[in-house]
Specification:
The protein has 16 helices and 20 strands. It is α/β, with parallel strands linked by helices and 486 residues long. It starts with a helix and ends in an 8-residue tail after the last helix.
Amino acid sequence: MTRGLLDRAEDRRRASLASLAPQEQAARGQYFTPHLAARIIAGLPRIPEADAICVLDPGAGVGTLSAALVDRLRTERPGVPVHVVAVEDDPVLHGALREALADLERIEGVTTELIADDFVLWALSTDRRFDLVIQNPPYAKLRSGSETQNALRGAGVLVPNIYAAFLALGLRLLVKGGQQVAITPRSWMNGTYYEIFRHEFVRAAGIDAIHTFESRSKVFADTDVLQESIIVSATRGAVPEQVTVFTSQDHITEPTSRTVPYADVVTADFIHVPATDADAAAVAWMMTHAKHTLADLGLTVSTGRVVDFRSRDLLSRDRVDGGVPMVSATHVRGGTTRHPVQAKKPEWFCASPEAAAKLLVPGGDYVLIKRFSAKEERRRVVAGVWSSATPVAFDNKLNYVHEAGHGLDPEVAAGLAIFLNSGQLDRYFRVFSGHTQVNATDLRQMRFPSLDQLRQLANTSGQEQERIDTAVERVLATTEPMKDAS
């Protein structure tokens, strides 16, 4: 029965995927859970000791998660009554979902219920509560001014994406001490975009367990999910002392696990995922030795102003009278910025004074950080110093650090680039961020050395990784952090 139940669930998932129009699936943000991933998700929460267990599956799809959880409950709590409430508003899926629920009801003690409503609107109006919520919510942005967004805002749920709304409402529908387990993108764990939601989440519930995957693409390989997926189990109204972190290559390989203090995972600003001892060490090192935000240092990070495809008529492959350098990620190499480099893209920018005033930055020293790192680059964060006496155009695939719109102190710029290119920073960033890209919002939240420490780092000779890492260790680990940013 055990193998057959999940095998049949997987058959329904694949058949449903094959029958759906890709455009409709993308519009709804539907990414059905493979049965092996569903087994992992269902295995994460504790099993309640209640005399009867009520389960909620929001956005149930074809019912794979419900099948996996009931399968586990039959093994660990045989005989306990289980009631499954599956909420799904896509009528195309109702046939397969009814089959799944009927499959579950063949098991003694299991009853089911299909609610054919929009989960958000239903959740905001129901007074029902559940022992367990298990979900793979849809991944789609909320349309501004939509009925869904207006209803959420009216209920005090401020989220940018529908998956975060599902998480927030899932917590609200739990009994005190009930658990929610969900597989979602990792993006809600850091950055200002999800800041309000993240703070509300950790106030309402304590994170018990996390399962992370080393491969970004294999878990939902047949549904084209490109974001990094993560499974989080949380208990409403209870904060544990420790969090269990599981790591596997994908949903097929055997995971490793480690237990870490809660404070090493959930901080005031973001949620770390220290999957290994090395990850934990990277977080501990950075939190001990880097104390300042860019704002503390009087610095600002912005995204380059020039979008190349919108500015084709302003770009030139050859230097022309009145032209200024057009600097892109191609020019940031080996900790420095070189221009020109005979790149495939135009390397010069020429515009009217009106356009130049909006798109150029004044001459000076700036630290440039690639927003997207190439596959051949060892580091996620790649930075270099740009220095010029004349104005310059920065491509929007670069972030640049400045001081009130102008250049930096040359020593501060040099030291900041050294720190950003260090192995210590790169290891921390991989734990801090679930993105392959480096966003300006991430950089604003991270911690940096003091201005004095940055000036000391500026004395580092050479761009070899070992020299950089040695210098960062020497300056940050042996210098007493200043009480202020200077």
